[in-house]
Design brief:
Helix content is 64%, strand content 1%. The chain has a two-stranded antiparallel sheet with strand order 1-2. It has 833 residues and is mostly helical. The chain folds into 4 domains: 1-83; 84-367, no CATH class; 369-636, no CATH class; 657-829, no CATH class. Helix 6 (128-134) runs antiparallel to helix 22. It has 42 helices and 2 strands. The radius of gyration is 30 Å and the shape is globular. The relative contact order is 0.08.
Amino acid sequence: MSFRNCIEDAKAEGVLTDDQAKYATDLFDNLEAEYKGKMNTAAAQAQAGADTFDALRKKTMQRKRQKAMQLRTWNEIKTNIENYKDWRGNPNQKSAAIALFAQDRPAGFASVAQREEAIKGFAFGEMNRVIGTFNRNLFGVVRQKAKLDNLVRETFGEATGDASAKELAQGWSAAAEMLRKRFNRAGGAISKLENWGMAQTHEASEITKAGFDAWREFIVRRLDRSKMLDAQTGLPFNDATFDRLIANAYKTITTNGVNKLKPSGVGAGKSLANRNQDHRFLIFENATGWIEYQKKFGKANPFDAMITHVSNMSRDIALMEILGPNPASTVTFLKQTLVKNAEGDEAATKAIQGADSQIDNYYSAVTGKNNEPVNAFWAHTFAGIRQVLNSAQLGAASISAITDVNFQRMARQFNGLPVANTLTSYLKMLSPLDAKEKGELAIRLGLIAEGWTSLASGQMRYVGDISGPEVTRRISDFVMKASLLSPMTAAGRWAFGMETFGFLASNSKRTFSELKVENPKFAAMLERYQVDESAWNVIRTTTPYDHKGAKFLRPADIMARNDVGPLEAESIATRLLEMVNTETNFSTPSTGVVSRTMLTGGTRPGTVVGELTRSFAMYKGFGVSLINSHGMRMAEQPTALGKGTYFADLVISATLMGALALQLKEMSKGRDPRPMDDETGEFWAAAFLQGGGLGVYGDFLFSDLNRFDRGLGETIAGPVVGFANDVKNLTIGNLVEAIAGDDTKAAAELVKFGERYTPGSSIWYARLGLERIIWDRLQMMSDPKAMQKMRREETKYRREYGQKYWWGPGDIEPTRQPDLSNANLSSLLNIGK
């Protein structure tokens, strides 16, 4: 009986499905054709049959492995959902399901978002010198491009004679190999390839524009077909199969994988564990071909290609480790589990209302689906507008960021870490001296490295979005760095993380029981992240990492131990890094998955609703994150006294730091500090909102308009709506007035428009000089009544806020220094005496 007949019989008996039978037949035909040129027909058929059988067995074993892992994951998730207690101590299965995707303090299990950051930290730790060498400068340009090309050639096994590039290439290769192995442990099956180089990136819009024929002709000439082997057989693809796979690759890239989705009620499409083999199908013959392809159809910058690969692999591994090899099917399982568990229980059924859409929204957030544009042109256009608005409006955000020192103190105090050196360690990390060395050390420890790996990462704290055209991202990135927001954010994160790893090392001689007695807060932090006595014994017996006499307990060193089981070591190291990263978000709050999802839901860019929602969400994420972090931590305290103590500390300290930020902002605008002893308490209400990241809403305590001359409704709608309204007034509004014969005041409005939306115009140390020397002069030239308006503005602040200008509107230079006594701090301190 021929092998084809065996396949047909197996299909008829139900041993093989239609898809499996077709796969087996196609594989046999391809192998038979391959072998016929090397041996006689009978031998070719025999060898093809044997190889097909081995391939089917291998594929079946992998499928069984993935299925077993998926079932094990589902059982763990079911147990976690049923045992979950919310901050009130009550069962809450909907919150438990959502906790799988984003950080949730009551959950005793990790989320996809936490796991992704930890895995990324391990990978970046391996390539810390790569990041330190090539991270972007103040203008968003990657450093040392010549050495970067040498690194690429070294990864392809091409000797360049550049010893430094060779060493950097080894760091990249170590990170990529670590990710490959971890992906496979999570259920994947990516084969190791010698001199693989690095993953290619694809710009779908450029490939679509070129068309299939042009793209195929360009890439095929640069591929090494001898290394492009069938993962099942280890043999090169024949021409027919190769052509089919190239066509499929084109469809996958240009449709973002939509061509692989199958409409069904179960998790649709290929499992994540299998899908990530695709990017290794295309293997370039040499570094030159890879570089040429990236310049034409991918990311021209190899540094960005490396960072993209680490980010994508970290995300996919996290999804698989938390949700199983097929995360999409787990989402379906989650929804069905909630319904089944609530069956017959009216209260439980009511409690899970809306769970389906929330689960979908969070899943879209962690997979990046909700950032995939529906209409690429409009999505990029509005993302670029948001970037420009950020660069024009966030120049003084670093003044607000001084409140980080207080959140650092609170996070350290809550977790039993040293508090006395909070400001010292923060300023030490902020100092430009040895910045490269300190940054590389922080990344080597596994700490978050967004400021060194992403354009415009500084705005993530307030916007939660770093998409958009590169030119606008570069503009925003420059302002974030020049205004010191990016350095301050990185300093805060790294200071807290390094303090924690150092404190772990200094306490390594203590047993877990001793920790509980001597520092119960620190022990409680460990227990919150499932670091029990057994895990602590592994941690504390790990040889500390020594950097110029300073000792740190690195998660990577725990994972590298040979005397501990590899899975146990990886689990402990991962939980430790998740702990540090999560607590870092308390020390330096920023917009995260929860706040982004709460504000934008499942909307996507490139749609009317999606863009309006993203406008609404701008600058609100930081305040939402504060509520979700410190606000929820306060609510979770087990006693009324604990809740009250945490609440009082949070409100009082945040208000005081908000008051400091508020006064510094007032002086940066040329005004004296605001009186702090007003009877209405309006100043302190505004200070409270400022400390909570909602300073712009404090303006409405005093006026119907905010600092940008916006009403409350327009402020809530967001900056993009305000920008659109200004554009409308400047164009259509002036046109209507001109037709009616009215004075348009177009020149004065154009100057005001330029002042409001010029990138960098709000940088705190340059803003006042720009306003007085440039914009005020232009206003006076374009508007005959400009001086009257400036005097009215001075009168308004003197009457409504009790402030005078130390550098008044229209003045070419300051008339005096700021009057600090106007704050009436001494009067405030004497209250009650």
